[in-house]
Write a structure and sequence with these properties.
By secondary structure, this protein is an alpha+beta fold. The chain has three helices and three strands. It has a three-stranded antiparallel sheet with strand order 1-3-2.
């Protein structure tokens, strides 16, 4: 695995996002990532930068709940 990259499962634990959402962020080029073998790998620094920006704009992490 390239240095500084984590799996989407590790990224999900770190951020509270769903692993599929993280894969979508990579495909949309909102965060850096590569496919390493059969697994997606995410650049940890770009993921954390995205989370900080999203939170600054009011985005919330974690599962959605009904009110």
């Amino acid at each position: 695995m390239p240095k500084g990259y984590i799996t989407t499962a590790e990224a999900a634990q770190l951020t509270g996002y769903n692993a599929r959402h993280i894969q979508r962020l990579v495909r949309e080029k909102k965060i850096k990532g590569i496919k390493w073998g059969i697994q997606w790998q995410v650049d940890r620094a770009s993921l954390l930068a995205y989370v900080r920006t999203a939170e600054k704009h009011g985005a919330k992490r974690g599962p959605k709940t009904s009110a």
